[in-house]
Amino acid sequence: MTIEEIQNELIDEFSMFEDWEERYQYMIDLGKDLPLIDEQYKTDNNIIKGCQSKVWVHAEMKNDKIEFTADSDAIITKGIIAILIRVFSNQSPKDIINAEMDFIDKIGLKEHLSPTRANGLVSMIKQLKMYAIAYQTQLK
Amino acid sequence: MFNVNSIRKDFPILSRKVNGKPLVYFDNAATSQTPQQVIDVIVDYYSNYNANIHRGVHTLSQEATDKYEAARQKIQKHFNAKHAHEIIFTSGTTHGINLVANGFASLLKKEDEIIVSALEHHSNIVPWQMLCERTGATLKVIPMNQEGELVMPEFDTLLSKNTKLVFVNHVSNALGTVNPIEYIIEKAHQVGAAVLIDGAQSCPHLKPDVQALDVDFYVASAHKMCGPTGEGMLYGKEKWLKKLPPYQGGGEMIAEVTFKKTTYADLPHKFEAGTPNICGGIAFGAAIDYMNSIGFEAIATYENELLAYATKKLLQIEGLKIYGTSKHKTSVVSFNLEGIHPYDVGTILDKMGIAVRTGHHCAQPIMDYFKIPGTVRASFAFYNTKEEIDSLIEGVKKAKMMLS
Questions:
Q1: Taking a C-beta distance cutoff of 8 angstroms, is the pair B331, B386 a contact?
Q2: Are residues B174 and B281 in the same domain?
Q3: Cβ contact (<8 Å) for A73 and B373?
């Protein structure tokens, strides 16, 4: 699936919920289902700065596509990074770099988009795109 | 008579909604809300007599100067300082601490020692570390125990003839512990050390008497006492303020300037370089008036009730642990749910309109001591109610259900 298709799928899933409680519960469940990152990658180097909770992200290039794994010590944050990984993992660096992010607003998580928000959704997006830029340079 | 319902009407913000729910504001230890009486003073200042103070010959400047200096006298009276010029207006507690730390840089020698406590806010650790780096002096730390109290016998052993300064907060921001500052001041003075007390967290709850305490320096922030942000005060004994060199150079703090030499102004202006936060100072005075009109005894009695009620109710939630269990506490409850990150709890509470603080509360050494990433901190003010605490309890229960 393309990034846009996955985003539309997420918008569909989130549109079924009536209130914030159901939305957050789903996000928490997505976090719980996030495949665990290999313990060796939970290093300080892989921590995303700007979050009140700890978020580790590891990226690997496989067949010209980037595979992301991640973890967080806070479950809501883990849900947020799980959503981002579902959108970005196994995509080409170029598609990740060019991806629009307005689906966040559409799934009702706009409040997390403020750059000063302590959970650092903006920092997470930036970090994932930075990996993509780094791998893109390698491809060239 | 203390009547919380009529007090709440003084605070316009308390009637707003957050995320569709009535606001429950339990982040008072970070900043307190502002009553209409103080808001009116701010509006009046900018509507009627906004002007730069001191040296102005025109009417507005004179009016602003009079009100600003009247505010200084209100603060002097409130803290029972001997002289009005012992009150220095600052931008807040952090500014006051840095002013004193900077002043001591020229007075300290390599063998000197500074004592701080394990309960300090970063703003009362970092300036002293910087001072030690500059002077070669050594920083020593009074340890804490499991209740979140300072261990006084350990403090006794840290004191020596080399101790020049002791810096302790009156009340811990992260845990709410009220520290035995009377004992600390007395003991420190016995070895000839000066004492600075950080009153940021105590002044919203009690009324310190700086002469009775015999404290050398006492600092506070207006925004934690129903006043505006960017405003605070440093009390210093006259003899110390005369001894310390100025912190910043500029206008207002000088007596005479030539390119050969500048002589400094008398107290308090020696430490008040540049145009101050005039409106902030005047509003600080109004905030102190407001709090005194309610009365600090009534405030303490009511807040203790809220604290006892919240503590009892929270402890009924299984898996909830309170950090900071001293008998001597202000109305602050720092807690965690077992196995749940404080950030998650804070996020769910926010969705329910409840404002708490989560994280390390700028007191990482305390969190390291308890081996936790942070806590959820609910801090109560005299305008909070038991019904609001009930909402918090419901919120915590919901967070536990959703996050477990």
A1: no
A2: yes
A3: yes
